[in-house]
Amino acid sequence: MTTVKQSDFQSFAEFYPYYLQEHTNPTCRRLHFIGTLCLFAVLFGVLISGNWWGLLLLPVVGYGFAWVGHFFFEKNRPATFKHPWYSLAGDFVMFKDILTGRIRW
């Protein structure tokens, strides 16, 4: 496996291999998946109920699960701190890749 260094990425395509390298622990990936699934559930609940205050829960459920995965299982620092938008996109792409079987659950 080639190690990708964290640097100033020019595109998401350059960033995503680094993102995956930072998510090799299965428990960390599962926590990301659960957090993203919860994010979609909260968003759905907000849209159905019209209670827009529920949007305040999105970062809590989205990042809460992921950060537990990084700090306690992966033992690294989340990419969110240096690359917030690429990291957010990475969460959604990894979620899709797990759903489609491209990445192991």
UniProtKB/TrEMBL annotation:
Top-level division of the source organism's lineage: Bacteria
Record keywords, A-Z: Membrane, Transmembrane, Transmembrane helix
Transmembrane segments: 31-48, 54-73
UniProt-listed Pfam families: Mpo1-like
Protein name: DUF962 domain-containing protein
